[in-house]
Amino acid sequence: MAEAANVVTTPDETSSHGRARLLTQIATALDLPVEALIDRPASREPSRASQEECASLLAAFCRIEDEAARSQCLAVVEGFARRGSAER
User: Fold this and answer.
1) How far apart are CA 4 and CA 11, in angstroms?
2) Cα–Cα distance for residue pair 38/46, rounded to 1 Å
3) pLDDT tens for residues 23-36?
4) Domain locations in the chain as residue ranges
5) What span, in angstroms and rounded, lies between the C-alpha atoms of 13 and 4?
6) Whole-angstrom distance, CA of residue 80 vs CA of residue 53
């Protein structure tokens, strides 16, 4: 992770370019994508899983060596999916 001390603030932080640059520096220091720091308006539609989330879930699932544990994991995820679609 980058050192937080590397974040440089400048007088132009009030400009949109300055804010974008500062946001990029903060995201880099925190080892996060810039999008994680942007406040998005709440929507009524549930968000869909991103490709990154899907890939992470699949990679973690593939690392589970125990067949019974994989079955339990799949059952939990499917349960959340059913519950989520029933709420819509």
Assistant:
1) 19
2) 18
3) 788 878 887 788 87
4) 4-37, 51-86
5) 17
6) 15
- Answer yes or no: pTM beyond 0.70: no
* C-alpha separations of 59 from 5, 32, 54, 64, 82 in Å: 33, 19, 8, 9, 22
* HSE (side-chain half, CA atoms, 13 Å) at 18: 8
Q: Is residue 12 very low, low, confident or very high in pLDDT (cuts 50, 70, 90)?
A: very low
Q: Rounded to whole angstroms, how far apart are CA atoms 34 and 77?
A: 28
Residue 88 to residue 75: CA distance in whole angstroms = 20
Amino acid sitting at position 40? R
Q: Which residue has the higher pLDDT, 12 or 21?
A: 21
